Amino acid sequence: MHSPLPSFEKCVQAIADTLIRQELPSRETPEIAEAIGIYVLAAHAGMPDYLRLAFRILTLVFDAWSFPVAGKPFHQLSPDRRADQLRHWQFSRLKIRPALISFYRTLTFFGLYSELYKQDVECGSHREHN
Questions:
Q1: Burial grade of 22 (CB within 10 A; 0-12, 13-18, 19 or more)
Q2: 28-56 burial, b for 16+ CB within 10 Å, e for fewer?
Q3: Which one, of 92, 90, 87, 106, lies nearest residue 44 by Cα?
Q4: pTM score
Q5: For the chain, what is the domain count?
Q6: pLDDT tens digits, the chain, 130 residues: what are they?
Q7: Is 3 a domain residue?
Q8: Residues 65/15/56/51 CA torsion (nearest 10 deg)
C-alpha cells in the first residue's frame, strides 16, 4: 500500500522518471530512471545544509501540490499527470517554480547522458575520434 503522504525521495525519483520519459519517449527507462534518481538524490545530499533544506522543502511542496486536484502526491500520479504538473511549474510566473524544475532537469539530464555514454562504451559502440 502506498503512503498518501508527500515523500522527498519518491518525488525525486518520480521527477527523474518523468523527465527521462519526456526525453526518451520510445525507450524503456525503468532501470535508467532508478539509477538517475539515485544520482540526483546523491547530488542533493552533497549540497550545503542551507540549500539542501530549501530544496527538500520545495520538493515536498511540489509533491503535495497535486493533493487538491488529484487527492494524492505527485509521485503517485500517472506519468501523463506528472508531466502536466512539471510543465505547469516549468512555465509558472512564480520564479521559484521554474527554478526548482530547472534544477532537477539539469541534474537528471547530466546523469542520464552520463549513464547513456557509459552504456555505449560498455557495448563498444563508442569510438575514439583522433
A1: middle
A2: ebeebbebbbebbbebbeeeeeeeeeebe
A3: 106
A4: 0.85
A5: 1
A6: 566 788 999 999 999 999 999 988 777 667 788 999 999 999 999 999 999 999 999 999 999 999 999 999 999 999 999 999 999 999 999 999 999 999 999 999 999 888 777 665 667 655 554 4
A7: no
A8: -130
Look up the domain containing 49 and give its range: 8-122
Residue 16 lies in a domain: yes
Distances (CA, A) of 130 to 9, 125, 127: 42, 16, 10
**Domain membership flag for residue 1:** no
Q: Is residue 104 part of a domain?
A: yes
